[in-house]
LacI family transcriptional regulator
Amino acid sequence: MPTARPGPNLSRIATSLGVSVATVSNALSGKGRVSEQLAERIREHAAELGYVPSQAARALRTGRSGVIGLVLPDIANPLFPKLAQAIEFAATSAGYGVLIADSRGNITAQTEAINRLVERGVEGLVIVPRRATRISAASCPVAVIDTASTPGNTVAADHWQGGRDIADHLAELGHKRILVIGNNPESNVQNDRVGGIRSGLRPDMHSSTLWIERLEREHGTGCTLGLAEKVREGYTAFAALSDLQALRALTELQRDGIAVPDMASVTGFDDLIFSPVITPGLTTVAMDMATIADIAISSLLKTIQTSGSREGMLVGADTDRVPMQLIIRQSSGPIAPGNGDPTKVDPAKRASQTETS
Amino acid sequence: MPTARPGPNLSRIATSLGVSVATVSNALSGKGRVSEQLAERIREHAAELGYVPSQAARALRTGRSGVIGLVLPDIANPLFPKLAQAIEFAATSAGYGVLIADSRGNITAQTEAINRLVERGVEGLVIVPRRATRISAASCPVAVIDTASTPGNTVAADHWQGGRDIADHLAELGHKRILVIGNNPESNVQNDRVGGIRSGLRPDMHSSTLWIERLEREHGTGCTLGLAEKVREGYTAFAALSDLQALRALTELQRDGIAVPDMASVTGFDDLIFSPVITPGLTTVAMDMATIADIAISSLLKTIQTSGSREGMLVGADTDRVPMQLIIRQSSGPIAPGNGDPTKVDPAKRASQTETS
DNA sequence: CTGAAAGCGCTTACAG
DNA sequence: CTGAAAGCGCTTACAG
């Protein structure tokens, strides 16, 4: 004998009201043509009894679970909270639940995570792929959130434009030598961001790039970035490709007695949780997570509604690029035009002082 | 006519193999007594066809959805990634899926989130309650993760002991005046942490507490904490109740030219993602998320298995206290015994210099 | 406007 | 060891 559910079901409501289950179902869903009077009585009674519809039965009958899956490369990623929150909100608003899976570790784990979700009957998947992973369509519609340069991508922040905004900002402040600080050159996102920065430099500006993972492979985790040395070499701006790296740069500079933003500027990406609260506040470029989530969810649902739900396909042929927004918190630059603050020291001079000490 | 699922089902496998669905079901689940030979053939054929069991049907039949819900006060909380990751891992290992819900905003949203998950048929709920919220049993088993001083709590890090560890550490470094920096005195967690710190102070040590939200209500968001002034008053250690506040303290001190850890120590709580990468690394106390998640999930599943799944009840009468672990990254303190480093300046002297400048 | 009935895909006693 | 059958709770054409 199948396990009985504790709560009331349609049949119980129907019997106690002397009507058929069909009518109760119709009244509650508002679909069938039930007299408003009866419908009202039914709704009332259902509420009284604390009726909760069985999603399982509904899913079995209709073939739709009302659930989508969210696969993340690493939930511990600091960007994740905002993304998950935005996706959860967009999905909930559309009446869907969100099942999460962490593809931590390797690509195998990612595949397993996808399979687990499919087995749980998700109608579609939102995937933030692991670095340099190509999602070959799973057995349900998939929306990929990564970067425009990822094949099959659905929606992404316009990382390139974000980079250009940073370059513009630094140019306006009068910086000439920029050190870009990234983590890993394999990342599509980080590459787009550097590309954008470089493309936005003025002819008289120069940049070079420091990849932290590479540095750490040589000198060990947590090694110094040698930023004070860079300041001595004439760099006045440090453009990190993520706020996490920006924070590392900022604290290292401060520790070495280099005043930020008076002697050097630091910028980041992503507007992570800590960026507004540190001193000085971090100038950064933020992804519009709400819009990204809305687009991902709505494209996904559109595909689900159109196709039979179990066909695997990637959603969205051309990546939707969502603008990133520059948030200026550290306003002063060393050579800012019209910057007449007398307490500010010429960075070149100060740098040479540091050098001789 | 009900919507047909695209994939193969038990019946299709049964027909094509000339056996009954019951036998296929038994073979695949390994429960029934099916000859190993036939079972093998069935498994093979099922794999060939790419059979994926219908969770909906299984759930309907057995009354168990195989899904639990995770309700978070604010997914954007920086602590969330680690928690969610740990919960997801523990649940997945036990064969359960995890549905997320964000009770962002107010208590109403929390209640709605809980209801949504219950309607989706979760078998149990892991809830991290909003500040000062008491979870009155929902209509399914609930495990609460908060702090031991929250009524009905199931499992928590031992925040009090973590505080005592911080106090011990600061005492050993020779600090006498400690400024505790918290965010909100309404938080049970933060209160436990302060309590622990105070209880661990030696008789010759003194502490006072700064609540940031209170300060900001008076002076505006992002106002200075006035820490340099505190250094001048003789405080040498800043014990924040979260790494986020520690970071704020650290950067403010650095900006004001106070060397950390030479002139002042800064400690935090939670070992957030950025804590190991900043300079100097942050000394902090970490929650053992894996253990906390394991306990939450296993108590929850135990209750689910015992009781009929729809009864509302809180899991775990006495809170399980999981030890927190001190992570020392900033080792030097201003008055550390045997600390003969000549480059180190007496904090009081340096502070007075700052004062006259 | 309302009801009887079929069927989604599975599991589980029960009979053979 | 294997199969026939009931039933989980719902929705949806269809008939009245």
